[in-house]
Amino acid sequence: MAATASPKSAEVRRRRLVAAAFLLPALVLLGALVVQPIGYSVYRSLFDRSGGTFVGADNYLEILRDDSIRTALRNTALWVVLAPTTATALGLIFAVLTERVRWGTAFKLLVFMPMAISMLAAGIIFRLVYDHDPHRGVANAVWVGVHDTFAESSAFPKARPGRDSPLVPADGGAFVTRDPVRAGVPVLLPLVGVAAEALPEGTRPAKAAGAEPGLVTGTAWQDFTRGGGGRTNTVDPAESAYAGMRIEAVKDGRVVDAATARADGTFTLSAKADGALLRLPASNFREAYSGVEWLGPALVTPAIIGAYVWMWAGFAMVLIGAGLAAVPRELLEAARVDGASEWQVFRRITVPLLAPVLAVVLVTLVINVMKIFDLVFVIAPGAVQDDANVLAFQLYRTSFGTNADPGLGSAIAVLLLALVAPVMFYNIRRMRREARR
């Protein structure tokens, strides 16, 4: 006669059945949403574009041959190196520096606030921030303001001699008079090409200079009358002065005298200018500095990484701040009593004690940046999307673009999974080690 099961073993089986019943919905969802897509991606990566011909590893070999995918791999590596380390370093600095200030909580709130913004919204914000026009893009507005503080641009970048002008082009973008000037004979320096709205604020009408014995006088002005009616190479009452124009007197290739046009365009040179050629140096016509092309081929990837750091530095700061709050204060105070400087306390005590937290933040950000897509898609203009390409974006373009290739797209997806998986496994092992302590 068979032995009956003990009450204890029956209770164990019952508990296992209850646990399995609770786990079954989660396992079904996990299989449907994770395992099945991964398995199908691996399967689909072994077939051609149509899915009807088995090609084996050809799609994976195409990854190595395709220039766009190689660029995506290179940019992804750049993201993995720069973005997590920069965001973690800034988070560490913010957490340490705000620990002792009274308004530290408010500052942390401001730094963390971008985390409440979606990647799409952040991309739109930084697309405007990086706009090349200084009147729209904040980055270039600041950059141009700093540049113009030290190297002010000309107010007449489009000016040039008109028809039958006494001025002719010279080397380097300057203009010189055709003939030497004489003392006591007023000189006319007519130019055209500057739009009326582009003239400096407060521009006054030009005035014909009077003759002065022993001196060289003249007028630099815009030889154009709005609405017509003006006379060429003649200072008409409705024409605008070129106030601030620099004029140089040149003899034998050497500047012997110089002057700056007054508000009415007139200028006066000493007797040294008698017999010299008058030159309008190229600095008068220097194009206005328009800033940096942040979204150009050279800087688009660092610019997008900057937008990512702006969003995620707050995340790093909050986690590191929580770890910093758990650091024993007795150790820090003991080090200070022993004569350690604040830098030594930070480098030899604070950072080593925060190493587990820093590892959590760094690994989390590494996993996150390997899947970055939205910021690249929104911020990078169409002309430079190839230069800003990353693996997740290339996956989208290959799988759903105008020339879609689901087989190659699946191969990229498998490659991306293979790159993320080791970091995930390392994070899981680290978390288990922490739990066993």
TrEMBL record:
Keywords: Cell membrane, Membrane, Transmembrane, Transmembrane helix, Transport. It is a multi-pass membrane protein. Coiled coil: none annotated. The keyword Cell membrane applies. Its main location: membrane. Pfam families: BPD_transp_1. It is found in: Cell membrane. The chain crosses the membrane at residues 17-39, 77-97, 109-130, 307-328, 349-370, 408-428. InterPro entries: MetI-like, MetI-like_sf, UgpAE/MalFG_permease. Signal peptide: none annotated. Residues 73-427 form the ABC transmembrane type-1 domain. Belongs to the binding-protein-dependent transport system permease family. This is Sugar ABC transporter permease.
